[in-house]
## 1
Amino acid sequence: MSGDLSTKNDSGIPSGCGPLLPLGNANTKPMRQQIFEHVRAAGRATRTDVIRTLGISAGSATALTADLINAGLLREVDSVPRETGRGRPAVALEVIPETNFVIGIKLSDEAHSAVLTDFAGDAVATASLQTPAHPKSLDEILTEVGALMQDVLAAAQKNPNNIAAVGIGMSGIVDHQAGTVPWSPLLATRNSDFAAKFEARFSVPLHLDNDANMLTLAELWFGAGRAKSDFAVVTIEQGVGMGLVIDNRLYRGARGMGLELGHTKVQLDGALCRCGQRGCLEAYLADYALAREAATALHQQANDHHSPNALLTALFTQAKAGNEAAQTIFRRAGRYLSVGLANVVQLFDPALIIISGERMQYDYLYADEVLAEMHRLTLNDGRSACTVETHAWGDLVWARGATALALSAVTDQAVAAIS
Amino acid sequence: MSGDLSTKNDSGIPSGCGPLLPLGNANTKPMRQQIFEHVRAAGRATRTDVIRTLGISAGSATALTADLINAGLLREVDSVPRETGRGRPAVALEVIPETNFVIGIKLSDEAHSAVLTDFAGDAVATASLQTPAHPKSLDEILTEVGALMQDVLAAAQKNPNNIAAVGIGMSGIVDHQAGTVPWSPLLATRNSDFAAKFEARFSVPLHLDNDANMLTLAELWFGAGRAKSDFAVVTIEQGVGMGLVIDNRLYRGARGMGLELGHTKVQLDGALCRCGQRGCLEAYLADYALAREAATALHQQANDHHSPNALLTALFTQAKAGNEAAQTIFRRAGRYLSVGLANVVQLFDPALIIISGERMQYDYLYADEVLAEMHRLTLNDGRSACTVETHAWGDLVWARGATALALSAVTDQAVAAIS
DNA sequence: AAATTAAATTCAGGTATCGAATTAAAAAGC
DNA sequence: GCTTTTTAATTCGATACCTGAATTTAATTT
């Protein structure tokens, strides 16, 4: 046993043991908030339901729900369709949706999307905006965001001061805590002070995060992850990203960089990735990786297609039609996807993996074959295999994830204000 | 937007949003316990120190420390070497070590190790036991464990009923919660009801876990991880294992299987692993992987060495002496280690990676070259690089990790008993 | 010896929760 | 139709836990 691990030092003073940092006790939400969140999560819940789920006494339930009702956050539901059974019928509670509204926005290179959501988490209106696909200044982006917010407010017949908070998700390296963007493909400048500029311009609190985290939040709040405490979300778009939920919370990593599944190495000295390294998963799976091989496989008609998207579509059609070279491309991409997923399973042991992304429409990628290969590449020693779900959703779902971010901040604030 | 993510269903009843499972609120320890753990972590602490660290009022500190002192868990330190400064001198508090004792045990194929630790976390005595290296019945193992506990008790001059709990770490698939062992290389039978049998035989509570988790706990409680909230521990022994600390707590995965870094794939259709698959990291790094190539490299004298350990030592000597083939073996192992570590960094973004294992004595593995390669394989976009530490510690450290497991359970119990 | 400074204690008061007794609202039994 | 049964919700006293201001204690400085 060497240096660090000896406990008695020479002075005879015990040096102690155990973690030096206290657990983040911020995770212990006050009871009132837990009740509110349970009601919102369930859609509707009776007091008895709250008592059973949260393990509190009947007295507390009465008092705390009364607080929430007085504060205008919850209400009793009148039109209860009488359940069968004897005894006094339970009165359901529900969130009053009109208390607060938030906007969630997903920024992309070719289009931005927005969702306006009420306090119950229901989408009220959506909007989207086509934009030129090139890096912009922060001011330009904010102008586009402003126009988009106008649109979605108009569609929902609300005005700006109805909005309690805004959430924005974008690709790149995003510092969620600081609200800054060290780097993003959408921005021409590095280290943009995004949140500060936004708040100065629109006078609404902004919550900013990486887009893979947004998608993960969407699954945690609205999707298949709601019932799981630990799961991973893998997104295959231009790049390959990942989000992780651990103990019902989004895990953001220690240094705030995204979880870059796309740049894990699956082959020593393998294919060249746009990040400049070799053997990244992305270099076998992303749009540009397929596109550059497509040019070879479809040699004769390569010049017909200029957009990578059209090229991929053509490649897919060819593969379906029996073109051997085209099929090989997809088959290899599928195999590497299997490897990437298997690695995630081995390292995290999640209960569920959700694969998401519009490119999922090329169903080669989520073919049973890929999943079977993934399971084959995973040690399973008698345990139940990790379930995999595939969701091919559009930008609006990402935007809804952004509303979740804003919604949870607004909820914290609204419930804490009761005191 | 498709099915799952729509929130209003046809009945008009809101379906709700947000995570359905509540956060584990077990993480909110009562103040008394936080104080106790802070004093133990610091070795010694004054009440004022407690006030500042935990952010509680002076009144609470007095009352709660008085409880802990009355309960016989803490005591004031008399011999305070007077610090310079005016005002009433602070009285330091410390844990009374003799309140409770625990034993931590690491089971291996060739030897078992044990540490007897007092309530302050200081090792009182150690013992180890050579054993035949073959799978055994649960009864045989428990007999060996019994003998080992006898030894360590004798060395510490304690008797069995001084022991409040025992922690055991072993390789294989271990269900920590249930206290069962679905599979382990040390046990001849599957699905052993380890903890129940142990407790029936020795009448002491047992806490059982995977050995990689034990090592991670050792780093969290006694080592370099104490000051970090998120870090990873990689262990290279017979296999390649990993442990993960997230938010100051050990992450155990959703299905209770270990985090199997060793079986992540670093090469499609690569080297054959003992798990039967191809391209596992372990197949390039573990003892047996090096040994099987060593036989080729040292062709002439391959027959002289029968133990894999001796073979590796010979290989290492040869490499140092300039044998090209031997050097190639180590160089390749080093490169794949870089890939494995880089993948962990990309997927987890930990603040610190600790590499541990006796095989670390072959310093090729922790050569700066490997770390440099790892950093090269990692996206670093301006952020501070992930630090890597290497620890070449023996089985006793693993055993101390097992004491941490027992210690934390005993602490919970002892502090809760005050009420 | 008096003033200053810092640590620790005392104690009144507040908040949050529990738990037992009570009230409320329905169905079932006679 | 009235009572009993059953379940939901409320009321209210008791209590654990913590804060914060005032006070006491024990040292140093002047």
Note: The longest strand of chain B covers residues 111-118.
## 2
Amino acid sequence: MQAAREQFFNYLAKKKLKFTTQRALIFDVFWQVEEHISPEELYGLVKKKDPSIGQATVYRTLKLLSDSKIAREVDFGDGVTRYEPYFGQSHHDHLICKECGKSVEVVDERIEKLQEKLAAKHGFILSGHSMYLYGHCKECSKK
Amino acid sequence: MQAAREQFFNYLAKKKLKFTTQRALIFDVFWQVEEHISPEELYGLVKKKDPSIGQATVYRTLKLLSDSKIAREVDFGDGVTRYEPYFGQSHHDHLICKECGKSVEVVDERIEKLQEKLAAKHGFILSGHSMYLYGHCKECSKK
DNA sequence: TTTAAAATGATATTGAAAATCAATATTCTA
DNA sequence: TAGAATATTGATTTTCAATATCATTTTAAA
């Protein structure tokens, strides 16, 4: 079994929750996702494989995936929470084109370090952050 | 007239919009705000001064204040968009305690520079960013 | 097998935000 | 100034994502 699937299984076991066929299916479809997906979009994909699955189950399962660190919530500020496969992925933030909506995953270790120091300076222990860079991509700048 | 009020007035004039008494009142109440406020909270305050003002007008005016760079939208990820006085303020990001909800305004010029470079590295021209640092404040860490 | 706990899908509900719309108010123009 | 054009307002409805509820079914434990 893939590591991520196993992690999900273990997480559920630890919480005395069940690895149901619905959760397995939702996980499998989700795990194919490139970049990120909204609950509604995922629901659409999942329904193709099993039309009997309820929308609420998709929402609930995404929460579980998020709690178990298999998925990560991303919020591009357009009113929809999206999720992206996270387990096994290295940490990254997002760079989004305001014009065409394209998003790129980015990281800068120096920024990460500075964020921690910045928090510490104010007496905080940093546990996470969300950083979205907005701008115009090469293609859109040309126009 | 204060600079911010004037900026709002000029913005409206440029767009051929009117500086109505409602907009003036909403601006005035908003400008007293420390840190940030949600539309609903602001609506509550404004109603105390003029109970006839409609909720929609508060929402609309906040959008105008945001468009004119007098206010800035902030999103702490709890489903409510808040606004903070921005005109004349120096740029800053937010450090939020996950436990007590306290928020602190922070900046690090080095981070700002690195963000720009990071975007450039991917062919983007950076036009803005949103950065929220989450952690535990000194008081909450003690417990 | 019985009992308890968890999960599901359908449906209803919530809450923020936006859209609609009739009624006013303001500005422009002849 | 009268009248036309435009903008604004407040009330209300609508939208939409997300969550809550609940009866039913499934699964695990005793």
Note: The interface with chain B takes residues 75, 77, 95, 97-98, 104, 106, 108, 110-111, 114-115, 117-119, 121-138, 141 of chain A (CB under 8 Å).
